[in-house]
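Example 3.2
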Amino acid sequence: MTLTPALPVIFILLWSSAFISAKYGLPDAGPFSFLLTRFVIVFLLFGAIAVAMRRPWPRGPMLANLMFVGVLMHGFYLGGVFFSIAQGMPAGLSALIVSTQPVLTAALGVWLLDERPAPAQWLGIVLGAAGVVLVLWPRLGGDIPLIGFVSCIVSLLAITFGTIWQKRHGGGMDLLSGNAMQALAAAMFYGAIVLVFEPYRVEWTMEFSLALGWLIFAVSLGAVSILMVLIKRGSAAATTSLFFLVPPASAIMAWAVFGEALGPMGLAGLGITTAGVWLVNRRVGDKTVKALK
């Protein structure tokens, strides 16, 4: 019982650590080879657990929607992040860009979901965009490679449209079997990329093994298991409202592990973006959780 209030914070820390693990393991693997290996193992683990617990498996339109979301959120989203970091994009800045997803979702929701943001949410949208520009603009072409920036934008668009599609068509998904099928979709996506564009390259060094193990057990299995507990206990809304902590948490981790520093202007932009994401999330958190149930 005493652990329950800490679970949302643990969830966010695990999610934030994924960016650090990616940078830690990428020197020893191609970005898409890394993700192919990860999602094959995740599919086998989730699938085995779902079979053992006799969970229902998605069929028909539900299966098609889950596979599509899996390609968007686990394929284009994570693939874009890993590719950007492999190209030299700082892990903390990658996290900052893609973590503005609630801001972009709220903005697009006006047209795609017929949702009307409150004035505070519009302010959050403006602050979120302004903060990202403040952080990135002086550094583009320097320590921020343009291709890495574009890759992060692709990731941001993928997770945004994946979230919207999930809200529209993902209701009733079993978390175990549904995640297994989404992992399978991601593995197939990366398998095609490895066959055509990137020869499979994985060096099973200690660094790669630790990064892969952390992403599989701490992030894919651990974070999702915590989310299942939070939903069951009715506190998933708290997790959603805490997503604004992802950028600063990732930035602190990147500074501690890799020495990535934002500088005064970067820190100001980080704070502005975090405030913007918080303004958006505090009004849409409950709606998002209800839509995903």
